[in-house]
Amino acid sequence: MNKKISMISRLSALTLIMLAVTGCNTITRLTQVGDGPTITPIVNPKDRPDYRKISMPMPPPQAAERNPNSLWRTGARAFFKDNRANEVGDILTVMVNMADSASFSNKTSRKRQDSEDTDVTALLGLESQFAKKLPEAVNPSSMISFGNNHNTAGTGSIDRSEEISFSVAAVITQILPNGNLVIAGRQETRVNFELREVMITGIVRPEDIDTANSISHDKIAEMRMAYGGRGNVSELQQPRWGTQIWDILFPF
Questions:
Q1: Is residue 30 very low, low, confident or very high in pLDDT (cuts 50, 70, 90)?
Q2: Are 219 and 207 in contact (CB under 8 A)?
Q3: Spatial distance between the Cα atoms of 85 and 96, rounded to a whole number of angstroms
């Protein structure tokens, strides 16, 4: 009786843990029945809980050079106003055009064979006593014998091809002491019951922004990009949460 009660208690505790782990996601999905995923409201990127200021190695500060009675200002790119993004809150377009492919192949083979034989021919005259004490189990001429034969072989290969092409507007959230700009951009598109999400952050140089106020992804340092979605289609492509937990916990 006590064993049954203990078993029921353990199953109840495990069920509660699973519900706690997936409770928020389950409740969210239940509230979206018939409506699909909800689009995230627009907020200040610096007010997001996952926003962190960026600190990078900086050169020593330089004093600004003054040119009195001159039409040219040191560091200016033109006599007329520059419409490219250069202040916090300005918007620029990030052009992403990635065609990535990788192919790896490797093969490992190892073989090893060891053997060792130890006998006792002289041990203070006691070697003759071994056969008397254990006549059937001990042979002084071959006391210990080891043998080992090991063979390992392994092969592996990776063949990956990815292609991503899109453009997204990003906002300057920070200006570093050396003049580089920290950008952050998010985009959400809802089609029926599927929500596509794009997120990109990184550091750019003002001089890399072209005259169309856009910049290519290969000129963004420390770029972090995420492209995915959530909704009915994405959920069907993933195993159920019970299967995922089973795959994590099952040791074999």
A1: low
A2: no
A3: 18
The CA distance from 217 to 95, in Å, is: 6
Q: How many angstroms separate the CA atoms of 90 and 163, rounded?
A: 29
Rounded to whole angstroms, what are the CA distances from 212 to 81, 91, 92? 14, 12, 9
> Which residue matches tokens 């071959």?
142
Tokens linked to 93: 């377009």
Distance CA(46)–CA(49), nearest Å, equals: 8
The sign one gets for the Cα dihedral 171, 49, 202, 39 is: negative
What's the length of the chain? 252
pLDDT tens, 115-171?
766 666 666 666 666 666 666 556 656 666 667 777 778 788 888 888 888 899 999
